Amino acid sequence: MADANETVKKTVEQTAAKTKAQAEQFQAAGAQAFREGVDKSVAGFSEMNAQSKRNLEAMVESASAAQKGAEALSQQALAFGKKSWEDNMAAAQSMATARSIQELVELQTSWAKSASEAYLSEMTRMTETLTASVKDSFKPINERVTASVETLQAAR
Q1: Most buried of 14, 73, 75, 127 (most Cβ within 10 A)?
Q2: Cα gap 17→115, rounded to integer Å
Q3: Angle at 42 between CA 32 and CA 26, to 5 degrees
Q4: Do the Cβ atoms of 59 and 139 come closer than 8 Å?
């Protein structure tokens, strides 16, 4: 019976040692998994922060390009308005010196034709400026969207 007690005691001690070793392994594996999870979370937050910073920079660059476009359009409109006013004054002076109705009608027709052509030309120029401004304004945002899509696809 002493041998049986010794055998039971050894079996209990061995089982306890194995259980303790397994518990330590599980605890170490859990701690390692927790550390890896925290590291991945920190890396993810860092990447999100970097993405947000790049997105903000793209928005600022976009707003700056839009402002430059608006300034260019304003300058063009102001220059066209000034030139149009000068041309209209010159045409009015010319029409005032007309010696006949026939000459007046010819001067007025010539002025109307040149004023219409100048207006259409200016509108084409302003449309081109506006199109370029919109394209320049959206370029940084489009680049960020493309980069974000590529990042998301790579994460799959």
Answers
A1: 73
A2: 101
A3: 15
A4: no
